[in-house]
Design a protein that fits this description.
515 residues; alpha+beta; 4-stranded antiparallel beta sheet; two-stranded antiparallel sheet; 17 helices; globular; protein-lysine N-methyltransferase activity; nucleus; Rubisco_LSMT_subst-bd
Length: 515
């Protein structure tokens, strides 16, 4: 899906407002299926807001083989017998300074190219610095002037079109200064995003996660953006775009690459009202792989971007960045991998807002009760607490969309007389009580009607998954059978098991226990 900006690798350019926001701030109006945010962007209350994520502590080496996204063998352009040597030579020419304590390598990484500590690294040490002139963006490419002049014609929902056109041009330019950088890219034809899976496989393996629906919106946005904006622009400038790059397939692949590898610089606090910054490609930084418990972070300064160690990194250990506070559904959607339970400390479980409405409707007995339920729901929509595309988001210790879910439970469960008074007053002031807190441990203290509605909602959510938790755990524990699964099947199984475990564990067990 395409979405707005991030601050770490991995933006999703082609989907627009249809994105479901990241866990901590998925709100009522958010949808899945707009281009995803670039790496490191934090979500904020139903909208995507840029912000450098600094969570995490340490990265156990034992997790590596299970966690990383797979990088495919071979450079995008091919033909270079030693792409790492060419890239390092290019780094020296452009002033991209790598610490002597780190190395770009395939050895000692979980998969493909990565960055490894050659000596012990302490927190705060600079790993490398990328001068802004070495960044690849719509402002630094060789057709930056044209892109700026045509900015109005290149506007789109995703906001990624200028960067994608810059990449299309530079990829086919014989003397592109970024050619050595492109040599370390994954093979574009072998990206593992679900958007490249057959539709039947995507729906079968990712049922209930929301990813198939997000991908469908992405694909529709990609097609629309390519044929309505990108192709006409390239055809108007045939001297800058050769026929071989006028390809919807290549554009599709580049969208996925930008989704997974681009960065988005966060706005300053005083710039919060501005549009998010455009995504950009950051050589060297996009080599690092992701862990929720990462040991490095990208920092922005006026002259350069700096990757700095945040934890002690022993010699021989891989260096991991964070792509943001990403739930597993976002990781598999945008990058094609997940972190197995319980490694992803940022993982969440979702209950679709309309599922809570459906659970409430099941408790109505006569038409008047149904009509009143819909009246309550319409009022929640007016308060912007719920929406047809939104989801309530459950974190490890609390509900991350607490205000929305608390208000929804109050309105749907309160007596009719109280609702009339509430509606007449157009809502009430914040009278939140401690016993209404939606921490996992506080669920038993909630009103019985609230617990009952939550329980029904969780049970309805579990019915959307293709298999149950025990089946998934049996597969995961059988190493011989698991090893025979395809990469896609393994990642989908990990994602589905995490979702089932979350819905079975904190919410369902607590609500069932206290009915």
């Amino acid at each position: 899906m395409f979405s707005e900006g991030m601050t770490s690798p991995g933006a999703n350019p082609l989907s627009s407002s249809a994105w479901r926001p990241q866990p901590a701030s998925r709100g009522p109006g958010a949808e899945a299926g707009t281009y995803a945010p670039p790496r490191g962007v934090a979500w904020d209350a139903g909208s995507v807001s840029a912000g450098l994520v600094t969570r995490g502590a340490g990265c156990p080496r034992t997790m590596a083989t299970r966690v990383k996204r797979r990088r495919v063998a071979g450079p995008a352009g091919g033909g270079n017998p030693d792409p790492v040597a060419g890239f390092l030579s290019w780094c020296r020419r452009v002033g991209l300074e790598l610490s002597p304590k780190v190395a770009v390598s395939r050895q000692g990484t979980v998969a493909g190219y990565g960055m490894v500590a050659q000596e012990s690294v302490q927190p705060g040490e600079l790993l490398f610095a990328v001068p802004r002139a070495a960044l690849l963006s719509q402002h630094t490419c060789s057709i930056s002037g044209l892109l700026e002049r045509e900015r109005g014609a290149l506007q789109s929902q995703s906001g990624w079109v200028p960067l994608l056109l810059a990449l299309l041009h530079e990829l086919q330019a014989p003397a592109s200064p970024w050619s050595p950088y492109f040599a370390l890219w994954p093979e574009l034809g072998r990206l593992e995003h679900p958007m490249f899976w057959p539709e039947e496989q995507r729906r079968q393996l990712l049922q209930g996660t929301g990813v198939p629906e997000a991908v469908e919106k992405d694909l529709a946005n990609i097609r629309s953006e390519y044929y309505s904006i990108v192709l006409p622009f390239m055809e108007a400038h045939p001297d800058l775009f050769s026929p071989r790059v006028r390809s919807p397939e290549l554009y599709h692949q580049l969208v996925a690459l930008v989704m997974a590898y681009s960065f988005q610089e966060p706005l300053e606090e005083e710039e919060d009202e501005k549009e998010p910054n455009s995504p950009l490609m950051v050589p060297a930084a996009d080599i690092l792989n992701h862990l929720a418990n990462h040991n490095a972070n990208l920092e922005y300064s006026p002259n350069c971007l700096r990757m700095v160690a945040t934890q002690p990194i022993p010699k021989g250990h891989e260096i991991f960045n964070t792509y943001g506070q990403m739930a597993n559904w976002q990781l598999i959607h945008m990058y094609g991998f997940v972190e197995p339970y319980p490694d992803n400390t940022d993982d969440t479980a979702d209950i679709q807002m309309v599922t809570v409405r459906e659970a409430a409707l099941q408790g109505t007995k006569v038409e008047a009760e149904r009509l009143l339920l819909y009246e309550r729901w319409d009022f929640l929509c007016k308060l912007e607490m719920v929406g047809e595309e939104g989801a309530f988001v459950i974190g490890r210790e609390e509900v991350l969309t607490e205000e929305e879910l608390t208000t929804t439970l109050k309105v749907l469960c309160m007596p009719a007389e109280e609702f009339r008074e509430f509606k007449d007053q157009d809502g009430w002031a914040d009278d939140k009580k401690e016993e209404d807190s939606l921490t996992i441990t506080n669920i038993p203290k909630l009103k019985a009607s609230w617990r009952q509605l939550l329980r029904k909602s969780v049970l309805l959510t579990l019915q959307t998954y293709a298999t149950d938790l025990k089946t998934e755990q049996d597969l995961l524990s059988n190493k011989e059978v698991y090893a025979k699964l395809s990469w896609r099947e393994q990642q989908a199984l990990q994602q589905s098991e995490v979702c089932s475990r979350w819905h079975n564990s904190p919410f369902r067990e607590e609500t069932l226990r206290h009915q």
